[in-house]
Design goal:
Blueprint: H1 2-22, H2 29-38, H3 51-63, H4 67-91, H5 96-108, H6 110-117, H7 121-142, H8 148-159, H9 168-179, H10 186-196, H11 200-207, H12 212-221, H13 233-244, H14 246-261, H15 268-288, H16 302-316, H17 321-340, H18 368-377, E1 386-389, H19 392-401, E2 409-410, H20 427-430, E3 436-443, H21 446-461, E4 466-480, E5 483-496
Parallel strand pairs: 1-2, 1-3
Antiparallel strand pairs: 3-5, 4-5
Length: about 500
């Protein structure tokens, strides 16, 4: 079974390489931001630990400063993620057939496919989370005390991507107390200390940057720097169903219920897997009643969740195997349609569009090569000019897709929260007296409602920071049928003033 699974995973690797190279799915704002981080390696960054920047640096060193270079390690992580879920299922006393399906579901559900495509922090976190769960499940299966140092090493590695991996320590302590109460305490202390090493790079960076990451995380948990967001329980629940596909999510809920009912009969390692999934998913659902919880924030509930699905569909109620296979089929169809989305739109008018552009989840990934061509057409020379925007997302994308891939500058005209660009040299420090090209990019419906207002506003506001501001053109980037769906305003800003800079934001 492992050979068959590996072959299917290799086919998936080739599919993902083809999608990255030819499907037209450009980098998203987060990916472009992480790429800018990788161009200035450090121990930490404003909103995340350094692992994702190190990951992208490795990929781009191997394959160049391209979309494939940025995403290559994510494809590798997803390959091993599915194999790790296969092994985790075996440690829960699953048959090899069941373990095969668990690995396959992990690989080809929407969560697994997206993890193969996008260079985001979830890939590294999920792999390390699963590795830590493997350490515990193996110990429970063999009735041996888990090795704290191995467990701590996985936690340390995962903490370089996302800190929620420390939530696994309570499960370790509960397993140790329930199954191995007489195990030695000294190795446990060593394991905890090893796991905390994953925080050291971020702590080192934050100590000299006003503890920005910790302030940002605290502000996010409080609902953000703006007015506290309301709960989104319904939206969150629906997003979880889409991450797995609805049939698989229903099977997961059934498996958790059946596992609870049969808790005294389950192998300890399977009971542990159910507890991890149930506790983390339940906590997120409860929290979503009080504040907005992003759909991917709880993705680490699903490596063990796949084991529960496999147990429920292929062993506990084999008649439900049809629904697991149906869910897998729906997942493949959904992701193939997802990969085809860019072909529904074009950089020129079409007679019609089969999908409203507002519903396109990839709208932020499209149109950037067109903007690059427009900047060159308007006289942008990367050797002597610079690019800037007042959104850090646009600034990141300008950095990657601009000629020579120079780091663009973030000009905080709106007084929004800090970001990583706030901690790098500003344009006033590095570009005094030089010419820059300011870019504002928006999608419909905001584009339709605000582009003329923004043109007039920027024409006035930018005069404070430059000797001369000239509006160059409105550039259509994407069309929804015959209508413009995404566009950009381009301004030439001559002679940057040094003495006038935007007020530093106090928001995190």
């Amino acid at each position: 079974m492992i050979g068959r699974l590996s072959l299917l995973l290799l086919l998936k690797v080739f599919l993902m390489i083809f999608v990255i190279l030819y499907a037209g799915i450009g980098l998203g704002p987060d990916e472009a931001q992480y790429w800018t981080w990788s161009q200035a390696l450090d121990g930490g960054y404003y909103s995340k630990p350094p692992g994702i920047a190190w990951q992208i640096w490795l990929g781009t060193q191997l394959f160049g400063q391209t979309e494939w270079g940025v995403r290559s390690v994510s494809v590798l992580f997803a390959f091993f993620q599915a194999l790790a879920v296969y092994q985790l299922a075996l440690y829960t006393r699953a048959t090899r057939r069941t373990a095969f399906w668990c690995g396959l579901l992990m690989a080809f559900c929407p969560l697994g496919m997206a993890g193969s495509l996008f260079a985001i922090t979830d890939g590294g976190l999920l792999l390390c989370w699963t590795g830590a769960c493997l350490t515990l499940a193996s110990a429970l299966d063999k009735k041996e005390a888990p090795h704290p140092l191995y467990f701590g090493a996985w936690i340390m590695a995962g903490a370089l991507f996302k800190w929620p991996i420390y939530l696994l320590w309570p499960f370790f302590f509960l397993c140790r107390r329930g199954y191995f109460p007489h195990s030695r305490k000294l190795p446990l202390l060593g394991g905890v200390l090893v796991s905390l090493l994953g925080l050291l790079p971020s702590v080192w960076w934050n100590a000299s940057h006003h503890w920005a990451t910790f302030r940002h995380v605290f502000a996010t948990l409080q609902g953000g720097s703006e007015q506290r967001a309301l709960g989104n329980a319904g939206e969150f629940f629906a997003s979880q169903a889409l991450l797995l596909s609805p049939p698989l999510f229903i099977l997961l809920l059934c498996g958790l219920w059946q596992g609870f009912r049969q808790r005294n009969e389950l192998p300890p390692s399977l009971f542990f897997s159910g507890c991890v999934t149930l506790a983390t998913l339940s906590a997120a659902i409860i929290a979503s009643f009080f504040q907005k919880i992003q759909g991917n924030w709880i993705s680490f509930a699903y490596p063990t969740g796949m084991v529960i699905i496999g147990w429920e569909a292929f062993q506990n109620h084999p008649t439900r195997a049809f629904w697991a296979k149906t869910g897998l089929g729906i997942s493949v169809i959904l992701t193939c349609l997802f990969f085809l989305l860019p072909s529904f739109y074009a950089s020129h008018p079409l007679p019609f569009s089969p999908l409203p552009y507002q519903l396109n989840p990839l709208k932020h990934n499209l149109g950037w090569p067109i903007l690059h061509e427009a900047l060159i057409r308007q006289g942008y020379e990367p050797k002597k000019d610079f690019l800037l925007s007042d959104k850090y997302q646009t600034t990141s994308l300008l950095s990657f897709y601009g000629s020579a891939q120079k780091r663009a500058y973030f000009l905080n005209l709106q007084g929004v929260r800090k970001n990583q660009f706030s901690y790098w040299p500003s344009l006033q420090e590095e570009q005094q007296g030089k010419t820059g090209y300011f870019v504002w990019v928006e999608n419909v419906p905001h584009l339709t409602h605000h582009w003329l207002t923004q043109l007039n506003a920027y024409q006035t506001t930018l005069q404070r920071y430059f000797e001369e501001v000239q509006f160059l053109e409105f550039t259509p980037l994407m069309y929804e049928g015959p209508l413009i769906a995404k566009g950009a305003l381009i301004f030439r800003c001559r002679s940057c003033k040094k003495e006038i800079i935007p007020a530093d934001s106090n928001l995190y």
